[in-house]
Amino acid sequence: MTTPVCTSASRAAAPVPSYTSYPSFSSYVRARGPVLLRTARSLTANPSDAEDLLQTALTKTFVAWERIEDHRALDGYVRRALLNTRTSQWRKRKVDEFACDELPEPNTAPAPDPAEQQVLHDAMWRAVMKLPDRQRAMVVLRYYEDLSEAQTAEVLGVSIGTVKSAVSRALGKLREDPELHPVR
To answer: How far apart (Å, rounded) are the C-alpha atoms in residues 97 and 41?
Structure first.
């Protein structure tokens, strides 16, 4: 006969009594659930966390149901389970935070100035308006309307190769536009 390597695993495999095996527990939860939920909500800021906290405390109470001698003191038992569970959650969260000399967040660039963005937008649009009609249409469809090369070709009734070459020439002209040189 071999002994289990992990004794807690063998205990975990033991059958757990079903919810219906303790009808008094079911009636207790139905009767006192709303009151206990209010208590859980006073311990957490989030209503969903309060429901999870109450569920955990009731699970602990259910597991210990046979060992509880005085069922008149169940509210106190569950409240203590709520408080202990919440304290354990709080401690676990605190352990995960470590003080360090350097901030883990990367240095972020300051947000761009909206006025500068508008100036850039206007300069770009003026440069696009200088393009020939066909190239302008292809650039607008490709980059402003975010169509694929195939979709642009279909809308304009040309081949994909025509779209590629025309957009390439248009981008070359935009790169050479003197109004856009400060951008680079």
So the answer is: 25
